[in-house]
What we know:
- This protein is α+β, with helices and mostly antiparallel strands.
- Helix content is 35%, strand content 23%.
- It is built from 20 helices and 24 strands.
- It has a 6-stranded antiparallel β-barrel with strand order 1-2-5-4-3-6. The protein has a 6-stranded antiparallel β-sheet with strand order 16-17-18-19-23-24, with no helix packed on it. Strands 9-10-11-12 form a 4-stranded antiparallel β-sheet.
- The longest helix is centred in the N-terminal third of the chain and has 29 residues, at 56-84.
- The protein is flat, with a radius of gyration of 36 Å.
Amino acid sequence: GGTDREGENICFEVIENALPQMRTQGIEFPVLRAKFSAITHQAIHTAMRGLTLPNENEAAAVDARQELDLKVGVTFTRFQTRYFQGKYSNLDASVISYGPCQTPTLGFCVERHLERLHHVPKPFWTLQVEAKDRGEIFNLNWAGGRVFEQKKAVRVKAAMLTAGIATVVAVEEKQGSTPRPTGLNTVGMLKLASTVLGMGPHHAMQVAERLYMQGFLSYPRTESTGYPKGFDMEGMLGIQSKNRYWGNYVKSLIEIGFSPPRQGKDMGDHPPLTPTQSCTEVDIGGGDSWRLYDLVARHFIASVSPDSTHITTKIEMECAGERLVLTGRRPLKPGFTAVLHHAGVQSTPVPALRRGDSVQLADVSVSQGETSPPGHLTESELIERMEKNGIGTDASIPTHINNITVRRYCNTSESRTMVPTTLGLLLVQGYKRIDRELVEPAVRSYVERQIDEIAKGRVSLAAVLRTALGNFRTKFQNFVSQIKEMDSLFEASFTGAQTSKIYTRCGKTMRYLKIINSRPPRLYNPLTEDLYIMPLGGSIVLYKSLTCPLCNFELSLYKLGQKSYPLCPNCYCNPPDGMREPEEGVCGFCPMDDSHPIVQRLAVCDCPESEGKLIVDPTGGPNWKLVSTRSPLVACFPPGINKVTVLQESDESGSRLLEVDFNERKFSGKVPGGGLKHVGSLADPFVEGLLEYKHGKDGVQLGRRRGRG
């Protein structure tokens, strides 16, 4: 059978079941195995002439992966399915699964989805320049590209229209080439099937396996892009020379001498995917089977065809001090693209111009656009990320992608992009709240490296399983103890979101968050499935549409009786480095760290009764007051004050200066200097005399010195 690890593992399964029946009395004999990559007479006869001993280490590596994935997947899946099943009436999922490979695969899709949502469009302007030469109109590219100042684009447009003529300053022609492809491995086949044929990876793998079983293709599960030494390239090409579609091309290729394949990687498992027979559409039965066979066959022939060549022409012009560029390309020799049509170079002609020529500008216009977010991951990009991060094998990658679609964690769009569903978002965001490593690829990549060590005989199966299962046991216990972190997201999405109200803007997506009035209150982003749990004990109200200077989230006020404190939902839940974590239980004082800019902006001086600060109550007038961030202390200003502003300047003791603006009709005292404004710190006798000190709810008066006259 197959020459890879799975083939070795199957071999030992066969030995385990067949050997007891094969043994004769007291006679021991070695068991050998045949390795072949295609179901053809030649491949099987060659395998029988080169029998080898089975590789127990490689078989053990497969056992390790199977046992680990089964035990971890079943444990997490059973727990979270039982926990959530029937809890929310509109949660439509019979199984809520976790998989060591499946979940990081979903994580890649969600990561890109969140990048899109967090993207803030930025307006830009470009110039559309049309020139005319001998009656032919063509477009020129302005070297300035995108500009983010409209005035600059308008200024350049006016200058170009005034000049009216562009002069050719350079013409450059270069011959370039596109190298022929390497051999086609499984991942390459899956990516091409998605991008060229619009065929999903799971379906493409099923079709490839069926073609292999029918003897039309070599073994489709291969990591190799390089052909092994001794590969009968001429014989394989000879088979295809009889094909009605590309036979003539192959005959000419053999006559002139086919090109040696590019240096790919021979992983020692199976050779790259190749056609093993020359077939027509009728032979195979048409449909997707024929489309995939056609793609693989053409790719194989292309891998030993000449490189394709082309001429690139670059014309540089100047107009009003601005550089304009025109680039064209024309095929020279098609090379491998004569058989692999989708890789062909499109011809883009340019006018015949020489240095010193002038062309008249037909039109110059300014177009406005805005930066766009990256697209959702395509199937091809997802496969590439999985391979790069060691998530799954060439054999299992299609299965993992299929799992996240059939379980409705992701939808596949018509353009073959992976769009996470609400449930998929919830799961990934929930895992991140509890243990980010459950969804990130690093843990799985490490496990795969350990499995490679088993295959090489450097470490035992038992040792790897003991370590890996021990790590996941710890993670599972932590997951169970913190499942309510994930449940709070499910509750917000499937229950609370239906009765929630629009609240403030998210600083990441610039979309509105919803407030869920529960204990404690929660802010919820239905687009990203992010949840921000607010402090318990007070009430949360809007705060003048001001935004946080650190994260751009709209601010709220945290009200405790007659006191108020500024609150940033994001910085409270995700404190910046060096700032304190949210307190558990009831929050009786300022929820934000005293060093946060929204507190510092209001801070006047150190609190005399705690380690906190005295700040101007952000509620403002008409009842202006100072409140302590860490004690019940309150200092009230008298009636008749329009505004109290904290200035940047401080006195000798470090106390910030206050600018107090008085109401001429309502303030009964006298302001020093006879005006309606006074600037001073709390050490200023007049300012200090204005204040009446109290202790929070009980209102006990600590001292009062009227400074009104």
